[in-house]
UniProtKB/TrEMBL annotation:
It holds the Pfam family Cgl0159. This is Deoxyribose-phosphate aldolase. It comes from Kribbella soli. Residues 46-298 form the Cgl0159-like domain. InterPro entries: Aldolase_TIM (IPR013785), Cgl0159_dom (IPR054574). It comes from the Bacteria.
Length: 306
């Protein structure tokens, strides 16, 4: 565990117990979901701070210059435990494996839990834009575990045939989640593949607006749809593209933390922006102080009383 990380006592022992439980009592996972104490999606202020940890399942392990920063599961879980214990953190977004570790450790009591659904578009793959549903595949699976919603990455590339399958699957998930009265968190990007074969998300205002318009129309109803969007230039104009509640994502934190916090704070003043979904910027801050980074974000989202 990195220097500076503190999470209770007996950290190594508790993490080691996870494998033992999975070997001898795998049924405890299903039991845990049924017994977990849940909460309303939003509190009185109508805002959310969600910690994201679904990057590893898509092979995206890098943070800044360290391409394997998220390679250690014990380290990631320890950082998540610290974050989830801080006041003002509403919940977590992750794939089943990460959520089940946190569940067995008792970290999801009274938290909002969003299941990541389509992780098939592996980072750097020739099929990256074929974002198949390989984690939680259906709304029924999410509802059966009493999760609070499902998230789908929805990248749109007019030159890639994989896009249409992604759109169709995301639409089905939006409809299914709405039938269960659960949040459908759609993360749209207008994307393209460069000459080097790498997929890039276009983050100019017009491209983001186009992605918003397409994502907003997915499914038979948008009643339970929330958007997950990047902080981009002209965000006030960009957010005029939708009335859907929106959570801002952090992305790979390349800017200095102070600049990042300032951009979040300004964006949170917009009426349709209702919070943050941030992973690497909070879990892997430059100074290693996860608690301080999370507390700063919580103050931005919920105020100093979080």
């Amino acid at each position: 565990m990195p220097v500076g990380l503190v999470w209770g006592e007996g950290v190594a022992e508790r993490l080691g117990e996870l494998t033992e439980v999975r070997v001898r009592h795998p049924e405890r996972v299903a039991e845990g979901w049924l017994q977990r104490r849940t909460r309303a999606l939003v509190g009185d202020d109508g805002r959310l701070l969600i910690v994201a940890a679904d990057h590893p399942a898509r092979g995206a392990l890098g943070v800044r210059g360290d391409r394997m920063a998220m390679g250690s599961r014990a380290d990631l879980i320890a950082r998540l435990m610290i974050a989830l214990q801080r006041p003002g953190v509403d919940g977590v977004l992750a794939t089943p494996d990460v959520l089940e570790d946190l569940l067995l450790l008792g970290a999801l009591e009274g938290k909002v839990v969003i299941g990541s659904m389509n992780r098939g578009g592996l980072q750097g793959a020739a099929f990256e834009l074929d974002d198949r549903f390989t984690a939680y595949r259906t709304a029924d699976e999410i509802a059966a575990r009493r999760l609070d919603g499902g998230k789908m990455l929805t990248r749109i590339d007019l030159g890639d045939p994989g896009t249409v399958a992604t759109l169709e699957s995301s639409a089905a998930a939006v409809t299914g989640l709405a039938e269960h009265k659960l949040m459908a968190m759609v993360e749209p990007f207008w994307s393209t593949r460069g000459e080097d074969g790498r997929v890039a998300n276009l983050l100019d205002p017009d491209s983001v607006i186009k992605s918003i318009q397409i994502a907003s129309g997915l499914g038979a109803t948008s009643a339970y749809t929330w958007l997950k969007l990047p902080v981009v230039d002209e965000l006030d104009r960009v957010m005029e593209a939708t009335t859907l509640p929106t959570l801002l994502l952090g992305g790979d934190p390349t800017a200095e933390p102070e600049a990042t916090y300032a951009s979040w704070g300004k964006a949170l003043e917009l009426p349709s922006v209702r919070g943050l979904v941030v992973g690497r910027a909070l879990l892997f801050p430059p100074d290693g102080d996860v608690a301080a980074a999370v507390d700063h974000a919580a103050a931005l989202v919920h105020g100093d009383t979080a």
